[in-house]
Every structure is written in C-alpha cells, then in structure tokens.
Amino acid sequence: MRRWLAVLALVLVCAPARAQQPAGASDLPAAVAEPLISVGSDYRGSVIDIWGVNTDRRLRGDIVVVVRGPNQAATVMHKRRVFGLWINSSPVRFSETPSFFAVLSARPLRQIVSRQVILRNRLDPAASAQLASAVPAGGDPSAYREALVRLRRDQGLYQEFTGPPSRTRRSGLTPHQGGLFHAVVRLPANAPIAAYQVETYLFREGRLMSSQRIPISIERVGVERRIHDLATNASWLYGIVTVLIALAAGWAASALFRRS
Amino acid sequence: MIYLPIAEMPVDVLLVLLVSGAIGFVSGLVGVGGGFIMTPALIIMGIPAPVAVATGASQIAATSFSGIMTQTRRKAIDWRMGMLLSIGGILGSACGVWLFERLLNMGQLDLTISLLYLVLLASVGGLMLAESLAVMRGRSARGVTVLRRPLRAVARNLPFRLRFPRSGLYISVILPLLLGFGIGALAAIMGVGGGFALIPAMIYLLRMPTNVVIGTSLFQVLIVASLIVVMQASATQTVDLVLAALLMFGGVVGAQLGVRLGAGLKSEHLRALLSLVLLAASAKFLWDLGIEPREHYVLGGGRW
C-alpha cells in the first residue's frame, strides 16, 4: 500500500516535469518511501525504498542509484610479523571515507560510464575515500584503499549491486514499465545513525543527463533516544547513574540470594 | 535481539546473559572481577572495543559490589588495607587513562594490551599453579620464596608502618599504595578490574591471609571500576547503559552462585582453578598474536 502511494505521489510530482522537459540536464524525478527511519530498541536494520522515473522520452540511458552515509575518518593498518608475533603496523589515515555506501545499477557500472566519470561523481566508495597521510615506505596506496573497501564490504557497509534483488540478496535495482524504476537498499543495523543522502543519476552514452539528491535521516526514538541524549548531554550524570544502577544490581542480587 | 543505543548495534539478549552469567560465576568462585574475560568476549561478539572496555567496567562494579555484600557478612574484608589500595588505585587509573590516550595516538594500544595480557596472565597463572600444586601435594609453599624474601625485607624496612589487625600485618603503607597504583593503571589500560593480578600480589607480596584477600580486593576493584565508568562516560561517551544492564544482571546472578560454591572449596583448589583460567586466557592471546591472519589489513579509528 505504502509503495503504491509512493508511486502515485511520484506520478503527480513528475507529471508537469515531463510535460515541459527542457533540452538540458534536469532533476531526475525520484522519491524515497520513508525519508525518516526511526531506531527503537527492536531496530535490526532497515530497507530504503527508492522510486523514480527515467525522463528520457525513448527511455534511453542507464539509471544509477547511490545511497551515501556521512563521511568519517578511518585508519587502515597492515599486520606485520615482528619477532614471531603478528602486530598492527604502518597505519594509513583516511580523512574522509563514506560511513555507508551503496551503488545500484541495472548493468555493471563500468559498462555505463568511464573511470573518470566514476571518480568525478564519486560513484564507488574507493573514489570517495580521501587519503590523508603518507603511505609508509614499501606500502602500496591502492592496496590500503582496496583493503578499506574490502573490510567495510565484509561489514555490509559498502554494497555494489547490479540487477534486480533476488531471493538471496535483497538490495537491487528493478526497471519497470514506462521508465519507472525501483531501487531497494538494505541498511544493516551497524550502519551509523545519521543523515544520509540518496542520489539518482541518469547516464546516456557515458554522459550525465540528469540527477537528483534526496536527504533521508535515521534517528533514535523513545528510550534509545533518551539514553543517548543523556549520555551525550549530561555525561557525568550518566556515568554516575550507571554506577548507581550497578551498585543497586549488586545489592539486589546479594539480598535475594541471601534469603533463598 | 535488542538494539544498543551507544554501541549502535543489535545483540542477542540471551547470548549476552549467558556469557555474562558464566563469567560472573567464575568471578564469584575465585574472587576476580572477570573483566579480563569479559572485555575480550564482548569484542568477539562484535561490540566496538572502547564500548566493551567502558561498559565492562560497570559490570565489574556490579559484580564486585554483590561480592562485597557477601564477604562483609563473613567479615572477610580488611577495610584499612582496602582504603589504602583504593587511594593508590584512583591515582593509578587516572595515570592509566592518560597513558591509554598516548598509546592510542601512537597507534600501539592494541599491541600493548595484548602483550600486557599475555605476560601478566602467563606469569601470574604459572606462579599460582606452581604454588597451589605444591600445597595440594602436601608440601608447604616454599617453592616461590625466591621472589618473596627480598621483597618482604624491603617491606619491613620501609617507613610509615601501620598495623592491619584484620590481616594480622604490620607493614609500611607505601606498599599497598604502590600496589593499588599499579593495579589501577593496569585496570584503565586493559579494561579490567585488576583482581586477577591484585589477589596474587596480596597473597605473595603483602602476605595477607587468603580468607580476607578476596573481599579486600573486591573492595579496591569496586572503587576503581566505578571511577573508570564515570571517567569513560564523561570523556569518551562509550558506556552503553542497555548493554551494561544486561551484563550486570547476568554477572551478579552468576557471581552469587559462584560465591556460594566457592565457600565450600579449599583455597588451594580455588587458586589452582584461577591459575588454569589465567593460563588458558594467556594461551589465547599468544595464539592470536602468533598465527598468521587471513586478512592482513585491519580497520582502526573510524567512529570511535
């Protein structure tokens, strides 16, 4: 029901846009089903539903959908053997890495656009990562970049999908009739709670025709929110409350077991 | 499954309760806080390390307070000694937090923690195992006097001697203060209460009678752990109240059962058991450091 409402809303929104479509680049009509995702105590990740329309009259071109989390710093370290022990060494710092990144397209990205366009529009997570420190002697910068993407991908934080979702994977991009497309991105529970951005792109013959950015936000609600607010705004009080709860728990257990 | 507001991830409630209960049981049995097992266990479950360290401390506070209640009823706490150890511990943990930040900036915190665990667990565990085995075989504990004799001589000649009627000791206050300081610093760096190192030190260095050792060390651990919770909560905001509540519940119930069972056991058996736990834990750290990892790169920094 929700999805059909989204589609209906979309059709209403993009109807005038289609009627007076200019020759140049324009906004790609798109919408998300839930612009606000709330995180309660039963939160186990969520799904971002994106609907949009290819505005090309003959439905030429390729749609690419990107979901991007806020940037954050990260450090990648290389394990080395020293005196028989494997230790973390040669740290390399990235000043900006996307905390979450998903890119969806109907066919492989490299068939749609060139490497330069991917870099310019930051269509893959490695292209979005900014190296901030010098790579130690003998180290390979691209190896660190690849390692960053691989480690985050293993955590489910970086996703790259071609084609529609299937039984085994729930993220994907599905084209529908009349240029309508539907993208589904699974947001794992370990993805940071923050403001995200959904980006939709229309590429034709390797060139960007139109695009659209939609902000979405993930927010704590209820008890989760109250605990988090207390921890950040009144951290001393929060610490003391935690200790008092600990003492109460210890006392209660001791008292209960004494009686029995 | 329940979502943790600070760690920002869901955990299996039953699993956390089971693990914390089991660790609480061991801690009640042998009188250690259990942090040296709890912190690595939480990290294995996928909790970010700083959250595991800070939240683990709140569970240690709960478990040790529950243990103290039981030990007080048995009059098995040397309050005077406990106060001195705690004063040293408070200063030590402040120093430890400072050192923690320095090491973190140098990027060598992980290695330092692992090596500290390895060396400390292995030496303390080995020493205790040797001693308790000797006692069990009917010989008196003369095996480890090598380490003890010169230190006792030093302790006797230091100034500010004080009588500790509960422990039947007459020693310098400098010794418990220094010991508390060292344990406090270790506790802050390693995310543990420090009981596993404090108990042997009290037995072998201070020569305290075994029956008051557990209660007194619990008192010091409680003070230091509570302080670490407040400091971490205000400085790094890594204390997760929901996770802490789960750990406390499992921990205190387990600890009560452990204390109950521990009361019926001989002290040399308890010590042998503790030493085996310590040796097993140190073997785990040696294994982790010595085996070639499948993934040669690791992610650090980031959100925390």
Any overview of this molecule?
The complex is a heterodimer of chains A (260) and B (304). Chain A is of the alpha+beta class and 260 residues long. Chain A folds into two domains: 2-220, Sandwich (Immunoglobulin-like); 221-260. Chain A is built from seven helices and 13 strands. In chain A, the strands form three sheets. A six-stranded mixed sheet of chain A has the order 2-13-12-4-7-9. The termini of chain A are far apart. The relative contact order of chain A is 0.19. Chain B is mainly alpha-helical. Chain B has one domain. Chain B has eleven helices and five strands, in the order ββααααααββαααααβ. In chain B, the strands form two sheets. Chain B has a two-stranded antiparallel ribbon with strand order 1-2. In chain B, strands 3-4 form a two-stranded antiparallel sheet. In chain B, strand 1 (2-4) and strand 2 form a beta hairpin. In chain B, helix 1 runs parallel beside helix 10, helix 3 (49-73) packs parallel to helix 10 (241-263) and helix 8 runs antiparallel to helix 9. The two termini of chain B are 23 Å apart. The model of chain B is unreliable at 141-146 (pLDDT under 50). Strand 5 (71-82) of chain A pairs antiparallel with strand 5 (297-300) of chain B, so a sheet runs across the interface.
